[in-house]
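Suppose a colleague, Dr. K., hands you the sequence of a protein chain of 439 amino acids and asks what its three-dimensional shape might be. Before reaching for any lab equipment, you can write down a predicted structure in token form. Begin with the sequence itself:
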Amino acid sequence: MKTVALVGRPNVGKSTLFNKLSHAKISIIEDTPGVTRDRIYSIVNYLDYKFNLIDTGGIDLEETNFNKLIEVQVELAIDEADIIVFVVDSKEAINANDKYLAEKLHKSNKRVIVALNKIDNKDSLVHKYDYYELGFSEYIEISSEHSNNVIELLDMIVKDFPKYEEVDDSKIKFSLIGRPNVGKSSLVNAIIGSDKLIVSDVAGTTRDAVDTVFKYENNEYVVIDTAGIRKRGKIYENIEKYSLLRSLKAIERCDVCLLVIDYLDGIKEHDKHIASYAIEAGKGIVIIVNKYDENDSKGKNDFIKLLKEEFKFISYANIIFVSAKNKKNIHLIMPEILKAYESNNKRIGTSVLNDIIGEAYNLNLPPSYKGKRLKIYYVQEESVKPPKFVFYVNSKNLVHFSYYRYLENKLRENIELSGTPIILKFKNRSEKWYLIKII
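The predicted structure, expressed as tokens, is then:
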């Protein structure tokens, strides 16, 4: 899958453009309650194309405190990207920041599209021709705020992209995601080494991933290793945002994510950010706590309490304490992967669903609001990966968050759905359902 990076100096409208591109002709992903994140990456679905989109900080040569850190981020994005969209402010004259960035982009030898932003009236045309001096071959006039020419920009971006096609591969794929230095590569080696039956190493579809096919109990599986770094130096490994991009690529391609957390280093905010992307992508998930000393039983109990507190939004994920270095508890990983995969692909009969929800409804009626109470007429499973359940109701506006959680919990109590997010979608009753009332 191709990668596109947005770069430019501060206040040229990169973030606004990022939001527009991320929501123009995009497949909508349901919001997951309880998950917040500072999004700087997105997967864009446009027509028959799909690509990663990166937002970057603004380069300001006069800002000495943070510019070096931002510049490193921009360099990472440029290095990672197949195409760069160079966003400039057409209402302002070209300045040293624009020229500095232009020089970097020319040296990258990447395809660059210059987006002349804020073209929304005659006053904005004053400086637009100044930017042609930067020497690039592709320019487009846009207004990210008013969505002018945003679709045309998308057409320019994808013009040489291959159409995205889902790979039909029956092998279960799993990837290890997490912060740098939590032991992902060691865990991959431990998992594969325990079976001694490596079938082949196959180059992955992303530039920094290697797919390893191996056998477990006579079936073939694929582990996606994201350890490869295309540039020398440890600086990439120490930058959390870069590790997040690599995790995103692995998440997009796998069936089950193993979220690896360092027992010795503890839980960090970045762990939760990475987990949130796995949830948003609808993947099965297992929490692996690595570098655990099995003699520290008290510490393990305290860590479990902390995990349950910090990861309330994935309380359904099973937890395994392992030591990749000492090969402890590695044998527990594959059964949990299979369990999460099965849950993520589980189909439940409509009659079973309606019996569960009918009993749950009668056991605990939803609260009334202004004299009205939620009524559930029918429930069916719409899709899997992850399981999505559609509730036909009298008014979806009467669904309170607490009752959403109650219904989710009842489904999980009665159906084995550990290791996977589930989606509850509420629709107002249409006429074709008027004869089917289960409650």
